[in-house]
Amino acid sequence: MQGAGAEALTSALDVSRETLARLKAYAALLEKWNPAINLVSRATLAQMWTRHFLDSAQIFALCPAGAQTWADLGSGGGFPGLVVAVLAAEATPDLRVTLVESDARKSAFLATVVRELGLTVAVKTERIEALLPLGADVVSARALAPLDDLLGFAARHLVPGGRALFLKGASHRQECTAARAHWRFALDVHPSLTDPEGAILSIGELTRA
What we know:
Low-confidence stretches: none
Number of domains: 1
CATH class: Alpha Beta
Strand content: 15-25%
Helix content: 40-55%
Number of helices: 7
CATH topology: Rossmann fold
CATH architecture: 3-Layer(aba) Sandwich
Mean pLDDT: 92
CATH superfamily: Vaccinia Virus protein VP39
Radius of gyration: 16 Å
Oligomer: single chain
Strand order of the largest sheet: 3-2-1-4-5-7-6
Order of helices and strands: HHHEHEHEEHEHEE
Structural class: alpha/beta
Largest sheet: 7 strands, mixed
């Protein structure tokens, strides 16, 4: 299963042998831990390389030039933030990644993967809204909350001029419309590589309406 899935990822992205080895080690740990703490839906494990790894990896290409800090909110099983950290370790080694996950068991999993893969990543076991502002250049999230709520988190943890990158499904247009009742922002919409109805929302110039 890992072989075929890994090939799908490497055909879509320029991934080195070393990075792919780290991703495979991550996948093995995910399969080992998942039965105990439900990191991802069991039904999606058979398609984990496209459903989770490639879906997360596509966001890394949208990292703004010169970004030094990336905060992933509600990281769960590490998507997208831990995948971003694996890719960044080789491509942009100066990028500092922070994973925020309030569930202690999931946070322990993230810390284990970070240690096993030899990554320099901070793992925060705290609630997003209670965490001291992170001052990140980039904030990301996947399957965490409606866009209106995500923008509140982004406003707390982004530096002025920072960028939010959110993976969204078929409802992204409606969520953007609803969010504009409370927020002003510049929006770029990028088609998803893994979901024909999904998109990556790249958001900047964020202020309250």
